[in-house]
Design goal:
The protein contains 17 helices and 15 strands. By secondary structure, the protein is an alpha+beta fold.
């Protein structure tokens, strides 16, 4: 008996799961019918019988960029503060708010923090309201100086995000909560940006790919915006989720961002930028509040494992409108497979140049025409087309098989890839609490007591 494929996590595309699970043990003809049912009822990219294989591919290619968390029972002294004053010149109770930014070693201020009181719920006494710290930013950019590639460990990134703010503006977080933060059990996630690097096929320009994806979404009636040849945004004003496809190398060049380091790892990063486009998904607070998998429970970093994030990405790939094609030219590798002197003739023709001007005689021109017509079906005497008619499906490009993981050589270089030892961070907090191991102890510690003054 054939083993049934594993189902996605509960709450992720249950309809897809039922169809995929039904494929196990069926003959090929019935599998074809079931596969067609998938494409007709769910959608495109990840709706194949090898769904679990795609999930494993996506897991290896996750890069976490911007992270947002909210910390309760915490406070901070921030540089910009204000309060609401009544008509009698008295400060309204619980109206104080503050803002600040964490500054990195190279001057970037990509992490912002806000402190304010939570709004009172209906029937809740005003005195029961608690202070909340909202922190949002890119820990990878803060520590690395770039966000081309970053870690997929959300627990580590959330801990270091809070640590970066603490170094600029000391936070008053009780010690027990700091230990929970190091375990990913404190700090509810309010935003998560997940980036995937997508390999650009040989012969396809990044600009043509970005424009083609934008056109496919326009034709499907989806909400989107386009900066021609540079980037396209899907659902840009949505409070649930959004996506973005753009040329990262062009962004670094045009927006004056800090240059990548002149090291072997830095050169590898630059090469990675040149060979890929960046597909980025943004998940917001309302997404987690309304999704079947997260609904009704606090979304702490430890819940967003690599596997869970991979299913989130696969689910969003279903929503992308990819019923279109992008045209391509003969790429360098394909041209090199054509013997000389016919190779240069084809290159001149696809660059819209008159082939006859580069050949010595009409006889030689006819020989080149005959060879390329018989081998490739190309009429180099005809008018050069606006585009070389070698269309490929957008589905083939934005597909998990075409996603690019971060090379091990880049992950091993601490100057371009930030990582932290969370076991050491947890042991540091436990030792300051006079505890040698995590777990339930004999001494009760009040998590809502006065915060300790020691540095994190």
């Amino acid at each position: 008996m054939k083993e049934k494929p594993k189902a996605p996590l509960a709450g992720f595309n249950t309809r897809t799961t039922k169809i995929v699970s039904a494929l196990a043990g069926k003959p090929k003809q019935q599998q074809t019918v079931a596969a067609r049912a998938i494409s007709n009822t769910v959608s495109n990219t990840a709706s194949q019988p090898d769904l679990m294989v795609y999930q494993q591919l996506v897991e290896k290619c996750i890069n976490i960029d911007t992270v947002g968390v909210v910390l309760d029972y915490s406070d901070a002294d921030l540089p910009k503060t204000f309060a609401v004053v009544s008509d009698s010149d008295d400060v309204e109770p619980d109206s104080h708010r503050g803002w600040g930014r964490a500054e990195s070693d190279f001057g970037a201020k990509t992490i912002r923090v806000e402190c304010r009181k939570r709004r009172a719920k209906k029937g809740e006494p005003v005195t029961d309201r608690k202070k909340l710290l909202y922190i949002e930013g890119s820990p990878s950019y803060h520590y690395q100086g770039h966000n081309v590639a970053s870690s997929d460990d959300l627990v580590m990134l959330t801990h270091d995000l809070v640590k970066a703010v603490h170094q600029s503006h000391p936070l008053n977080i009780p010690r027990p909560l700091r230990a929970l933060l190091a375990q990913g059990r404190y700090g509810e996630v309010t935003r998560l940006d997940v980036a995937i690097l997508v390999r650009v096929p040989d012969g396809v320009s990044k600009a043509a790919l970005i424009n083609a994806v934008a056109l496919a979404n326009v034709m499907a009636g989806a909400n989107m915006s386009l900066y021609a040849n540079e980037s396209t945004y899907g659902d840009p004003s949505s409070q649930l989720r959004a996506w973005k496809l753009y040329d990262k190398a062009l962004e670094i060049q045009r927006k004056g961002k800090q240059a990548l380091p002149d090291t072997e790892a830095g050169k590898a990063l630059a090469h990675l930028c040149e060979q890929t486009v960046r597909l980025e998904f943004v998940f917001r607070k309302k997404y987690f509040a309304n999704h079947a998998y997260f609904k009704g429970k606090p979304v702490y970093p430890m819940r967003l494992t690599r596997e869970t994030i991979a299913w989130m990405v696969i689910e969003e790939l279903h929503r992308l409108q990819l019923k279109g094609k992008v045209h391509r030219r003969y790429g360098l590798n394909e041209l090199l497979m054509i013997p000389m002197p016919y190779r240069s003739t084809l290159a001149h023709w696809q660059n819209k140049l008159k082939v006859r001007n580069f050949l010595e005689s009409d006889q030689e021109a006819k020989r080149h025409w005959r060879y390329l017509k018989n081998r490739l079906g190309v009429d180099v005497f005809g008018e050069p087309p606006a585009e070389i008619e070698l269309p490929i499906s957008l589905l083939e490009v934005l597909h998990p098989n075409n996603f690019v993981p971060v090379p091990a050589s880049i992950k091993a270089d601490a100057s371009v890839f930030h990582q932290s030892d969370m076991n050491a961070a947890l042991q540091c907090q436990l030792s300051k609490m006079d505890r040698k191991a995590r777990g339930v102890g004999l001494v009760w510690v009040d998590p809502y007591g006065d915060p300790l003054d020691e540095a994190a």
